[in-house]
Amino acid sequence: MSAAPLLEVRGLRKHFPLRSGVLQRTHAWVRAVDGVSFDVYPAETLGIVGESGCGKSTLARLILRLIEPDAGSVRFAGEDVRGASADRMKRLRRDMQLVFQDPHASLNPRLTIEDAVAFSLLVHGTSRAEARERARALLGRVGLEARLYGRRYPHELSGGQRQRVNIARALVLDPRLLVLDEPASALDKSVQAQVLNLLADLKAERALTYVFISHDLNVIEYVSSRVLVMYLGEIVETGTADALAQAPKHPYTQALFASAPSLDPDRRLERPPLSGDPPNPIDPPSGCRFRTRCAFAMPRCAETPPALRAVGEAHDVACYLYEREAIVGAPTGCTHSGPGGDSDLRGGQSNEDGTRRDLRESRAGHGTRAPCG
Amino acid sequence: MAVTTALPRDLDAAGATPISYWRTVAWRLARDPATLVAGALLGLIVLSALLAPWLAPYDPNAGSIRLRLAPVGAPAHVLGTDEQGRDMLSRLLWGGRMTLVAGLTPVLVAFVLGTALGVLAGYVGGLTNTLVMRTMDIFYAFPAVLLAIAISGALGPGLPNTLISLSIVFVPRVVRVAESATVQVKSLEYIAAARASGAGVPAIVRHHLLANVLGPILVFASTQVSLSIILAAGLSFLGLGVTPPAAEWGLMLNTLRQSIYVNALVPALPGLAIFVTSMAFNLLSDGLRDAMEIRT
Predict the structure, then answer these.
(1) What is the pLDDT of residue A361?
(2) Least CA distance to A63: which residue of chain B?
(3) Strand partners, A12
(4) Which residues in chain B touch residue A100, judged by CB atoms under 8 angstroms apart?
(5) For B57-108, how does the pLDDT look when each residue is reduced to its tens digit (9 = 90+)?
(6) What is the pLDDT at residue A212?
(7) Which residue, among A275, A294, A240, A269, has the nearest Cα to A345 in the 3D structure?
(8) Chain B CB within 8 Å of residue A180 CB
(9) Domain A7-11+28-109+156-224 maps to which CATH number in 3.40.50.720, 1.10.3720.10, 1.10.10.10, 3.40.50.300?
(10) Which of A124, A154, A169 has its CB closest to that of B193?
């Protein structure tokens, strides 16, 4: 991680106005992305995980400047994306591309897939013949032999095949950074695996850097080197995929890992570790946004939002439970189960029981519980 | 590979060779008897109107006082004569020209103008959208017939004024359809993908937007042709459209209406012509809508 980051995101914020009435007056704001900062280093895969509606897709569109942020900056290879002129932006777009989530809406039904892939090249002034040649070659690389598929229309392809076309379209400009917005979520498991493997192969072949967005923790764990956990437009925890899987710190991350279905029957949960829906992003809770669903919420959680703090090697968490730990700089030994210990939530039955009891207590209104230490 | 070229033709068609969009549309149309019949009928009507100078047995404006209101099947006048003794067949053939011009031109004008305005409003959005759409709403507030009569009344009778007033009636309708189609397509991810590739607005509109909105707009416009024919005939009937002695179906219906007690069949002929033509247009646009459906 010593190399210069390829992508630097600082304090990115996007609030969508909600308008109503004849005069279209703004009466509320949806805080889709609220002050997000992170770096993406060359050749890594940064996973971004969170529940639906937490602002992941908005973040993807902000990075690529498909929508303009309200505040914050995005720098690609040291160059300011947000302030780039139209000409500069057009060249920047060659370097950063997006793969979309919905294989049905992301392809123009009136273009053959060959034309759909070649379109990007034509935009950048490649000759028609060469664009066609390169599009056909790339379609072959993603497993759709152009001789058989090139002149087909999207409705003649399966979801997995369409997603391959999407990938080819994103890659045809030879980008350095690929933002993948739930690229496999709409596909069934076997096709999902094929697409993920294809992405892994392409990454190695072309020295690509990925920002991989998904709600599926298993997928994120499989593809990412580093993971960023989002909740209601904010980052609550970042760390290496291994660190997060083995010792998730934030109560939300722990709940996410606990809710990922396990193949081991002994580890299956009877009840969901996290109940309810995330609060409305129009009016998020004060302080820490997770406190309304958190089993360990304290009075101070409602006051000021916790900042991201280092709790380990390249492992940051935004939670007051780890404040002391962060100051001391060493993990504390926890006397009772719950966050703070380096215990794997999925690992022990007792831990899960403990967590569940905590949740029940807090839901029943028996007050909040002090964390360990 | 050589193997491919050696593939049997039918196998090729089943899998490897895709059929272009317009060929698919033609293929679907060819399997729809109602649309085919309507299309053939319409072709016949258009052809007969075009060839009226050669087909018409008499001068449509030359009457004979002695031969007024001859019944259908009268010798030398197959479809009878009108209240001034003019040959009905000749007048119907010549009247078809006027009626078709009055039916098609406003819709064509509305299709071009309405698409341009609707796509502009839908794609740009914001204040432009509000301005364009609310202006259209003003026109929309009046019933079509009332608006057409009011504008024609203000402009005065005559074919050009009929065309103008009917165009004004149809533009807002097309704008609405074009705008909603544009807004819907604009939000789809392939438009975002095109933007992400660095394409400018003209390229996106041309290659990605228009290709996907023109179909629905065209289908909608085709449903309006029959209405336009009826409105044009209505204006002529009221004396606001084509001026006598020119032959036009609506005008013929107007002048013949007093003769309905003398000879019921002859006055019904222009009405029948209007009915058949507008029906054929409706059936054709129905078939077109089904055939042009975009599979996604």
Answers:
(1) 39
(2) B196
(3) A36
(4) 189, 192-193
(5) 777 777 777 777 777 777 777 777 777 778 888 888 888 888 888 888 999 9
(6) 92
(7) A269
(8) no
(9) 3.40.50.300
(10) A169
Q: Give the nearest partner residue to A66 out of B18, B196, B294, using CB atoms.
A: B196
Give the ranges where chain B is alpha helix by DSSP (H).
2-5, 9-14, 21-30, 33-50, 52-55, 88-124, 126-140, 144-155, 159-186, 189-196, 201-204, 210-237, 249-256, 265-291
**CB burial readout A60-75, b (16+ within 10 A) else e:** bbbbbbbeebbebebb
Q: Which residues of B touch A123 (CB under 8 A)?
A: 194, 197-200, 203
Q: What pLDDT shows up at residue A268?
A: 61
Measured between beta carbons, the chain B residues lying within 8 angstroms of A119 are 194, 197, 199, 207
- The distance of A160 to chain B (nearest Cα, Å) reads 15
In which residue ranges of chain B is pLDDT below 50? 1-16
Q: Taking a C-beta distance cutoff of 8 angstroms, is the pair A274, A317 a contact?
A: no
CATH class of B95-291: mainly alpha
Distance separating alpha carbons of residues A184 and A130, to the nearest angstrom: 30
Contacts of B149-155 spanning 24+ positions with Cβ under 8 A: B149/B235, B149/B238, B149/B240, B152/B235, B152/B240, B152/B241, B153/B240
In whole angstroms, give the CA distance from residue B75 to residue B57. Answer: 13
Residue type for A368, please? T
For chain B, give every domain's residue range: 95-291
Give the C-alpha separation, A45 to A245, whole Å. 16
With beta carbons less than 8 A apart as the criterion, state whether B273 and B191 touch.
Answer: no
Q: Rounded to whole angstroms, how far apart are CA atoms B252 and B249?
A: 5
Spell out the domain ranges in chain A.
7-11+28-109+156-224, 240-364
* Residue A214, strand partner residues: A49
Q: Which two tokens stand for residue A121?
A: 């090249």
Look up the pTM and report it. 0.76
Ranges of chain A with pLDDT below 50: 1, 326-373
What type of residue sits at position B182? Answer: T
Q: Do A155 and B18 touch (CB under 8 A)?
A: no
**Token digits of residue A188:** 């069934």
| A366 contacts A297 by C-beta, under 8 angstroms | no
Q: Residue type at A175?
A: P
Name the token pair of B102: 């009055």
